[in-house]
Specification:
This protein is of the alpha/beta class. It has helices at residues 27-36, 48-59, 85-90, 105-111, 126-135, 153-168, 175-185, 191-197, 199-206, 210-216, and strands at 2-6, 18-22, 41-45, 65-69, 97-101, 117-121, 140-144, 172-173, 225-231, 234-240. The strands form 2 sheets. A 7-stranded mixed β-sheet has the order 8-1-7-2-6-9-10, sandwiched between helices. Strands 3-5-4 form a 3-stranded parallel β-sheet, with helices on both faces. The structure holds D-malate.
């Protein structure tokens, strides 16, 4: 099992691979929290408009749907919730179905749709998501969500943490994975602070979401992780624990 890291989402489908998609601040961390709160289906969309339409269409079949996500870090107009994991935890009663649209995280997940397996992962579910990836028997591609198509240090730091775990589970490292691991090893003792110092971390901090940074830096707080599946012919994240 070879482990590689993509600094930004792939432009062609990574056929045959198991993709571990990471948007540590904050989309895949939010997905983990939602699944732990009992959400059974999370539909990621590429745009805000698509998310609004999908919520309406799912609600016609009498489903209550949580519409959440962000633009520039804040809840888009008419959304039920932004992209804050700690705000979700303050109000933990959520419907069973959610639609999520974020700037980088949900497009990154969708860019891997069609790969052998796609896991929505974060430090919050490091061990279980890595074990699942190893059990798939495929080569693993860790996909960083990045920032609007460019390298984002926060995701690379988290990717390095995943590389370390996957190597401990028997994975073979490649050059791209070594780069992420080296970055992570410099910061592992003060991981939350390192996330906060990144460009995206600074922006998140300035918007008043320091609690989110602390939360997203927690390791192995949850067993549940999301797997990208297909429901009603659409990409949908469903919970898994093994
Ligand atoms: C994204 O998808 O770009 C992020 O999750 C943004 C955020 O929540 O700050």
């Amino acid at each position: 099992m070879k482990i590689s890291v993509a600094q930004i989402p792939p432009t062609t489908i990574p056929y045959g691979k198991t993709c571990i998609v990471i948007d540590v601040l904050r989309a895949t961390s939010v997905i983990t929290v939602l699944l732990d709160l009992g959400v059974k289906e999370i539909y990621p969309t590429a745009t805000i408009e698509e998310a609004r339409i999908l919520k309406k269409s799912l609600e016609t079949s009498n489903k209550k749907v949580l519409l959440l996500g962000e633009r520039d870090g804040l809840p888009p107009e008419g959304f039920d919730h932004g992209n804050s994991p700690t705000a979700l935890l303050e109000n933990p009663s959520v419907p069973l179905v959610a639609v999520q649209a974020t700037t980088n995280g949900t497009p990154a997940l969708l860019s891997c749709y069609g790969a052998s397996s796609v896991i929505a992962a974060a430090p919050l579910n490091l061990s279980t998501s890595c074990k699942h990836a190893v059990n798939s028997g495929n080569d693993v591609l860790i996909v960083c969500a990045g920032l609007r198509g460019k390298f984002a240090e926060d995701d690379m730091l988290a990717a390095g943490m995943f590389v370390e775990k996957l190597v401990s589970l028997g994975g073979t490292i490649t050059d791209s994975a070594t780069e992420a691991l080296t970055l992570y090893k410099k910061s592992e003792k003060f991981f939350a602070e390192s996330l906060r110092r990144t460009e995206h971390g600074q922006k998140t901090f300035e918007l008043g979401f320091n609690n989110d940074i602390e939360k997203c830096a927690e390791i192995d707080k949850y067993k549940v992780f999301g797997v990208l599946s297909k429901i009603f012919d659409r990409p949908c994240i469903i919970p898994n624990t093994n």
